[in-house]
Amino acid sequence: MRGAAYNFERERLAIRGNSSEGRCVRRKIAFVINSLGYGGAERVLQFLFESAGEHRDRFEVHLILLDRDPEVRPMPDFVVKHVLDGRGSLLRSLRQTISVLRAVKPHLLVSFLVRANVVAAVSGKLLGIPVIISERMHLSSHLAGRYRGLRHRLARVAPRLAYRHATIALGVSAGVTDDLVQSFGVSPGRARTIINPYDLAAIREAGRASPDIRLPRHFIVAVGRLEPSKNYEMLLDAFALARVKQDLVILGDGSCRFALEQKAANLGLAERVVFAGYSRQPFPIVARADFYVSSSRNEGFPNAMIEAMILGKAVVATDCPSGPSEILAGVPRLGVDGARDADFGILVELGAIDALARSLQRMNVKKIRAHYETKALERVENFALDRVSDSYWAAFEGAAKTS
Question: For the residues 215-243, what does the mean pLDDT come to?
């Protein structure tokens, strides 16, 4: 499928051409997300609100947070927040969301992340509200990596039953969109692909600030939660094998931290691997790295990797389902055997420790790294905030007009 073709530019122009109607009828749009934490989906939502521009005049914007978790993403003043107490429970979140929706009576629901997507799709079906779900990860591989046996089969049931009721199902990459159609019952006619938006100038400006931690003189950087999906075990093995001159700095925290610290020590890397935890200001750290590495087992559209490229970093990444290959090679999954020099970075076969080690070594060749630094800056122009944000708002306005 490679993401259904949909002319968002034509929709955007049609909406602008009918702007007098948009000013007369101020529609309500309710966004649903688990919380406002550090994740990429939360960052995208923040970007969409901050770049709403003229769209905010045509919508009354509500934001439903399913859980009472700490909020680290500030929202603009025009956003009306409804903080629920879902406590991670799907049924509790659904019941509370329906109660809010009956009071607000929105013309459109837009959701991000699996639980919020299921809640929105079911709520929309019950209340007769158009729904746009936004899937941020390659869901099949994510669930396969997280669950086994009966738990895995049960974890697939809710999205498979709910997603088919969405008015539009957005995938953040073509690979994610394909997976929604092939594995979760989404009709091809309702599936769309819109990538993440990025404020290139703001990220580069932030990268010029001073880092908030002490850094090695030369280092490779990896960014992401310390969870099995990020496959840092493979990265540590490859880093030990490569014997490169740099240290390794890993930004992120999670349930695997202790095990990974123990593994680094067992490999004799305790003094060469920095587990830096979460940083509220990652860009100054990434900006000072020699290059960026990702060893993920699965991704959607990896924000941290794109942000590193915006900062001019060359990239080595595993060819996991959805994301890296689409960014670095222009296809949903290249199917790498060993390692391959792609158009915009080096792609490595998933699980191939030797190939990843060789790729870390190759990225230390000055000519190769300089080439991919230039190509990274060229590639990220496709992901500029204004261009992508307009595509999202065109989809929202088009769906809201049908209600």
Answer: 97
